[in-house]
Amino acid sequence: MGRVVIDVMPKPEILDPQGKAVVGALPRLGFDRFTGVRQGKRFELEVEGEVTPEVLEQARRAAETLLSNPVIEDVVSVREASGGRDDAGAGADA
């Protein structure tokens, strides 16, 4: 069984109140090196069999049609998941 990971972020010009709240809280918790935060969404789609280029293209179309709001969000990454559950930064944008 394969897995596709999709990352969706607010467009740069869209206000991100959750990100603003997080960046304000970080210094109070001792994390003083961060100057900006944008909060997005991550989806993990399971597929039967291998993750092929066709599967990735279908996942991208699903992300652009259903998983994101194209008025205020960008689909920034569609990729095959690595072996572990936490594959942040793994794979290339498709």
From TrEMBL:
Its EC number is 6.3.5.3. It is found in: Cytoplasm. Pathway: Purine metabolism; IMP biosynthesis via de novo pathway; 5-amino-1-(5-phospho-D-ribosyl)imidazole from N(2)-formyl-N(1)-(5-phospho-D-ribosyl)glycinamide: step 1/2. It comes from the Bacteria. The keyword ATP-binding applies. It is an enzyme of class 6 (ligase). Transmembrane segments: none annotated. Pfam families: PurS. GO terms for molecular function: phosphoribosylformylglycinamidine synthase activity. It catalyses: N(2)-formyl-N(1)-(5-phospho-beta-D-ribosyl)glycinamide + L-glutamine + ATP + H2O = 2-formamido-N(1)-(5-O-phospho-beta-D-ribosyl)acetamidine + L-glutamate + ADP + phosphate + H(+). InterPro entries: PurS, PurS-like_sf. Its main location: cytoplasm. Keywords: ATP-binding, Cytoplasm, Ligase, Nucleotide-binding, Purine biosynthesis. Belongs to the PurS family. Part of the phosphoribosylformylglycinamidine synthase complex involved in the purines biosynthetic pathway. Catalyzes the ATP-dependent conversion of formylglycinamide ribonucleotide (FGAR) and glutamine to yield formylglycinamidine ribonucleotide (FGAM) and glutamate. The FGAM synthase complex is composed of three subunits. PurQ produces an ammonia molecule by converting glutamine to glutamate. PurL transfers the ammonia molecule to FGAR to form FGAM in an ATP-dependent manner. HAMAP family: PurS (MF_01926). NCBIfam families: phosphoribosylformylglycinamidine synthase subunit PurS, PRK05974.1. Part of the FGAM synthase complex composed of 1 PurL, 1 PurQ and 2 PurS subunits. This is Phosphoribosylformylglycinamidine synthase subunit PurS.
